[in-house]
Write a structure and sequence with these properties.
196 residues, elongated, mainly alpha
């Protein structure tokens, strides 16, 4: 099997490039803040006639959700173009577990905004963003067959909880690699000079 080549850099670096680090940590912070600001009982509030534009937590949550989607797409493009990522010697089961964790996190980063759009569109709620941007109706979603397949608000909430638990597990694994195995996995995602 031929190894994948990367036109920008054929040899893996000992650490991730700066842009990959910014994407990683920026996404982690934004997802965490969006989770914290996620309005409990969103559907109930909308059924009671609360205008989401009057709730800063909703406006921030939805704006950060759109930002997560944009960052995730940009990250995927960058992954196709960036220098080779660092490689670390470790047991085969650790490589498989890390790969599985990354795939699941990528799927969640894409699925969370999609399920939010499905929830808003299928329930007739507006998308409200910072700067007064408002999309009152998403007819493409509201009139699609997909809209009625699930309670997309519940799916979105479950996926949001899932990404937080899995991100925590991901962080614990990185700390284990740094503290116990001392293999440089965590320090490879940190700026130079941090955590030797």
């Amino acid at each position: 099997m031929k190894a994948q080549t990367n036109p920008m850099n054929q040899q893996p670096a000992p650490r991730y490039d700066s842009l990959s680090q910014v994407f990683h940590w920026g996404t982690a912070v934004i997802v965490t803040v969006a989770f914290i600001l996620g309005p409990g009982g969103f559907g109930r509030l909308m059924r009671q006639g609360v205008d989401p534009a009057t709730r800063s937590d909703i406006v921030w949550h939805e704006s950060l959700g759109v930002l997560v989607l944009v960052l995730t797409v940009l990250r995927l493009v960058w992954i196709a173009l960036r220098p080779a990522k660092p490689q670390f010697p470790m047991a085969a089961w650790m490589h498989r577990s890390a790969r599985l964790m990354h795939v699941v996190l990528w799927v969640l980063l894409l699925a969370l905004p999609v399920t939010a759009f499905l929830a808003l569109g299928s329930e007739g709620h507006p998308l409200t963003l910072l700067g007064g941007v408002r999309l009152d109706r998403v007819p493409l979603i509201a009139e699609s067959r997909v809209a009625g397949l699930a309670d997309w608000g519940e799916v979105h909430q479950f996926l949001g909880d899932s990404i937080m638990w899995l991100s925590g597990l991901h962080a614990v694994a990185a700390i284990f690699h740094q503290v116990v195995l001392k293999d440089g996995v965590l320090s490879a995602m940190l700026p130079k000079g941090k955590l030797r």
